[in-house]
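Input/output pair, single chain:
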Amino acid sequence: MRKRFVIFGHKRHGKDTVCEYIQAKYGINFISSSLFIAQHHLFEVMREEHGYQSIEECFEDRGNHRAYWFNFIRNYTLVDPTKLAREIFASNEVYCGIRSDIEFEAMREQGLFDLAIYVDAAERLPMEDPDSMKLTKYHGDIIVDNNGDLETLYKRLDRLFQAMGYEDITKKKKAA
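Output:
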């Protein structure tokens, strides 16, 4: 059975970059929690109020309504803090973008993920407001430093995922 990961960090710190890389390089599939919630629930709620024409437009504007998205997910998971995680993990190995400490701790307690990876770019980017991010680097099992260039980030990810036994699927594609 493949491992399940939670990848999180402050806005714009590189979570999606990390997930896109490990998907392309190691075949580890993911979805952003924001994209998932937009596709399945939030777009219909926000479309009228904000005049969104598509899920993609709603998703792309999420940075302007970060606290609203956080509160929507918090309310969505109020009765069962693991609800969103179970939905995401039903077809993905990575839950990208968790921000709730309550949701995170419930997931950890129920063993829904194998490793929590915090993406840190705090030396070059601001931290987000605590009204929309309740997790810190101390929630992570691993902290991936993203304060340098992209090449350095990719090398760190390669060392981490190869140490866990993941094979580079791009080499197989080139050989074929």
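The radius of gyration is 16 Å. The chain has one domain: 5-33+81-175.
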